[in-house]
Amino acid sequence: MYNQPSKRNCQNDIVCTQPVFDPNTNNNHPFLPSELIVEILLRLPARILLQFRCVCKLWKTLISDPNFAKKHFLISIADPSMSHHRLAYQDRSYPLKSLFENPSALAIPDRFKGLENDQNFILGSCNGFLCLYDPHPDQNKIIMYNPSIHLKSNSSPQVKPSPNWGMPCNGFGYDHVNDKYKVLAVVENGGDDINDEDVGELLTKIYTFGEDSWRTIQDLPHPPPIQMSGKYVSGTLNWVAHRWGYPTRYVIISFDLDKETYRDVLLPQNVPDADYMCIPSLCVLNDHLCLCFVNKTHLVVWSMEEYGVVESWTELINTP
After folding, report:
1. What are the distances in angstroms from CA 76 to CA 84, 89, 146, 172?
2. Higher confidence at residue 112 or residue 283?
3. Contacts 24+ apart (CB under 8 A), 38-46
4. For residues 83 and 97, is the Cβ–Cβ distance under 8 A?
């Protein structure tokens, strides 16, 4: 595994113990305080930092420090210019900044490098990492991939028991309590033929990157969600699902990545009845879980300002 820019202990001080230019020598080179050197390095692109590890042993140690990687990630996502943000699609990624600066002349996309093939599905993203699934029957495995520096984790064991199984639901996120990345997969038995008694059987499995096996856990409390990929927010994965037999026909399934337990999160009280609401979906905006749907002729977006608190739902957009 490569260094993971998780958010745990990101407040730890990053110290460059020796100045790059010694002020006590008799040369005329300018002196940069070590603290300033660290701040400069923290604002450079990840690919440049990989090259700078060859400058000296001190810089290699500094740049390889997990705390440095964590702080570098937080600074990158806070950059209002979006210079470090990329739009990932299939086997390549695009600089997001180019979409806003010159949408008629998009930058050439970067292809993912270091992968065995280019037929991977993106299951999710978290803290700058992508979770990729190789559906080929001979593979049927999942990896974590860092598109900024083209490094990947070791592959997981095979996800599905056999090729006739499907994967109607999945999610990828970060367990900040245990400093681990996890992927959840719901797999469904497609059966060898329509008379197979096990057709439709569901298994819910979870894999912790760095371990050597999947674990079977409690099934989702509701039928397979509407959206395939869960949205990661505040240490949880979230899906919209049907809730049959209740006045409110939709509910958000929340999965706690630390406790590995589920709970229901209710939709905003003022959303219209399901008969007037197009199938809802979830997204994440500024680290807030958002609910999106079409109400007759209007696009509506609600944001949960405090995760898990139903009263904190706030309507952001309601426009034709």
Report:
1. 6, 20, 14, 21
2. 283
3. 38/14, 38/62, 38/68, 41/68, 42/14, 42/68, 42/71, 42/72, 42/75, 43/75, 45/84, 45/148, 46/72, 46/146, 46/148, 46/149
4. yes
Q: Which residue has the tokens 């930058």?
A: 107
Global pTM reads: 0.79
CA distance to 159, 164, 245, 259, 310, per residue, from 305 (Å): 35, 41, 29, 23, 9
β-bridge pairing 215-217 and 236-242: unpaired
Q: Which residues pair with 174 in a beta bridge?
A: 181
- What average pLDDT is seen over the chain? 82
Q: How many CB atoms lie within 10 A of CB 223?
A: 13
**Residue 226 burial (CB count, 10 A):** 15
Could you tell me the residue ranges of all domains in the chain?
1-78, 270-320
Q: Is 47 helix (H, G, I), strand (E, B) or coil?
A: helix
Q: Using the predicted structure, report yes or no on whether residue 35 has a pLDDT greater than 80.
A: yes
Backbone phi, psi, residue 14, to 5°: -110, 120
As a whole number of angstroms, the distance between CA 86 and CA 76 comes to 11
- Which pLDDT value is given to residue 247? 60
* DSSP track, 3-24: ----STTTTS-----S-SS-TT
Measuring CA to CA, how many Å separate 188 from each of 94, 141, 167, 198? Answer: 33, 16, 6, 10
Non-local CB neighbours of 68 within 8 Å, separated by 6+ positions:
14, 38, 41, 42, 62
E strands in the chain:
86-89, 92-95, 110-111, 121-126, 129-134, 141-146, 151-152, 165-175, 180-189, 202-208, 215-217, 231-233, 236-242, 250-256, 261-265, 281-285, 288-295, 298-304, 313-319
Report the C-alpha gap between 270 and 188 in whole angstroms: 35
Output the CA angle 256-205-8, nearest 5 degrees: 40
Digit-coded pLDDT (tens) for 234-271: 999 999 998 876 666 889 999 999 999 999 999 998 88
Q: Is the pLDDT of residue 203 over 60?
A: yes
